[in-house]
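Q: Could you fold this chain for me?
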Amino acid sequence: MSNEERDTKPEDVTSMDQLVSFLPPRIWYLTSNGQDMWCRRPYGFLFSTGQLAETFAKEMGTGEDLFAVGLDAGALISDEMLDGLRNTSVTRLFVDPSIDPATGDVFGKILRLATTH
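A: Sure. Below is the predicted structure, expressed as structure tokens.
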């Protein structure tokens, strides 16, 4: 896969409704405690299936015991959740990311969380 195929320009997201419009109806995230989303600042990771999420966690080799939790996108994504991500310096969300086996680079669709100031 070429760099052109892997590199995507991040799309700016300014509202909860806009973010939900980019996501599948059911969204999955990785967690170690069943509630808090696992992130690698400045990135958060969302997936369209639990299998994709857990495969990504294994390939990423985090050393943590992560598992996938799935919710309706509208139930997961809220203004409070977006504020929480921004407050913890998560400014970009990968959607269904992949890992390049040759380089270990993460690539895929990226949504950039616009600041609310």
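A (continued): Residues 94 and 110 are 5 Å apart (CA to CA).
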